[in-house]
Design brief:
The chain is built from 9 helices and no strands. With 200 residues, it is mainly α. Helix 2 crosses helix 7 (134-162). It starts with a helix and ends with a helix. The mean pLDDT is 77.
Length: 200
């Protein structure tokens, strides 16, 4: 799918498509939404849509997705874990430990988790499952959405206005960040295991 096809779709279906794309990007499977935000900025630069309105619609779609995922986690997350947890190798003591760890880091995860594909999709479900207060969740989700959406949209707008860079290179940003997150996670896991091993 080319940049012309995507921007043409934005021109045809407008801000509804922007909202729905970001909404399903949060509640659905992990995907490089960063590239989508960049393309939205490019579309605004080519006067297919308004930059402020496109940015607000993107933020709104992301927040709506977070709220729906939070509600799902709050109402069905814990019962589901209690039923299927043992079958997938997550007995009650393990997933409760995960929930406790998430709750202590919920603010940072909600704000900066947007920048990590996979984390931004899982985070609101965990927030709901841990019964994180709605006001706190909404506040940090909104802050995170703004800090995530605006730079990528502006990047696309600036690139389209100043340079002729194929967006395929920019779309890899999300995967790079996800790869760095996985490397960091593996490094921390190895470090913890090394600390637990007795010194001979």
């Amino acid at each position: 799918m080319t940049i012309e096809t995507i921007t043409g779709a934005f021109a045809t279906y407008g801000y509804f498509l922007v909202f729905i794309s970001l909404f399903f990007g949060i509640v659905g499977i992990p995907a490089p939404e960063e590239s989508l935000l960049v393309i939205i900025g490019m579309s605004a630069a080519s006067h297919h849509m308004s930059l402020p309105l496109a940015s607000l619609t993107s933020i709104g779609g992301a927040i709506a997705g977070m709220l729906v995922a939070y509600a799902a986690g709050r109402w069905i997350g814990r019962p589901a874990l209690e039923k299927i947890g043992p079958w997938i190798g997550l007995p009650k003591d393990k997933w409760e430990a995960v929930m406790h760890k998430y709750k202590t880091r919920s603010r940072r995860t909600l704000v900066f988790g947007y920048f990590l594909p996979g984390v931004r999709q899982v985070s609101p479900y965990l927030a709901g499952t841990t019964q994180l207060p709605v006001l706190r969740f909404t506040l940090f989700s909104c802050l995170g959405a703004i800090l995530w959406v605006i730079p990528y949209v502006l990047l696309g707008y600036y690139v389209a206005a100043r340079f002729n860079i194929p967006p395929v290179y920019i779309s890899s940003i999300g995967f790079i960040l996800f790869g760095l997150f996985i490397i960091h996670f593996i490094y921390q896991t190895i470090q913890k295991r090394l600390k637990k091993e007795p010194v001979s």
